[in-house]
Amino acid sequence: MRLLPAAALAIAALCAGPAPAAEKCDVPLADWQPREALEAKLKSDGWQIQAIKSEDGCYEASAIDAKGEPVDAYFNPKTFERVGTDDEQG
After folding, report:
1. Number of domains in the chain
2. Residue 2 forms part of a structural domain
3. CA 34 – CA 83 distance, rounded (Å)
4. Whole-model pTM?
5. Quick one: pLDDT at residue 56?
6. What is the pLDDT of residues 5-58, one digit of tens each?
């Protein structure tokens, strides 16, 4: 009977998707770089920016990437590391 809760926990862990962007962007507001700096970085990488907003503790950029694909991508506001996309959020 004790195996049932353990099995349920194991199944839940296997079914869990990627961590939400908010869990990857736990950065104090004082440490955030300006939005314009992310825009400049992405433009230099060949992206065409449509909008950048704050979302769940991250920056979310709506853009056309260097490959010409539309993308909604999340970035760490301190490092500008890409931490996910809307497709990965579920």
Report:
1. 1
2. no
3. 17
4. 0.72
5. 87
6. 554 444 444 444 445 555 678 999 999 999 999 999 999 999 999 999 998 899
Q: Which domain holds residue 55?
A: 19-89
Query: Which domain CATH number covers 25?
Result: 3.10.450
d(CA 38, CA 68): 19
> Which two three-digit tokens encode residue 64?
């056309």
What is the DSSP code string of the chain? -THHHHHHHHHHHHH--SPPHHHH----GGGPPPHHHHHHHHHHTT-EEEEEEEETTEEEEEEE-TTS-EEEEEE-TTT--EEEEHHHH-
Does 73 map to a domain? yes
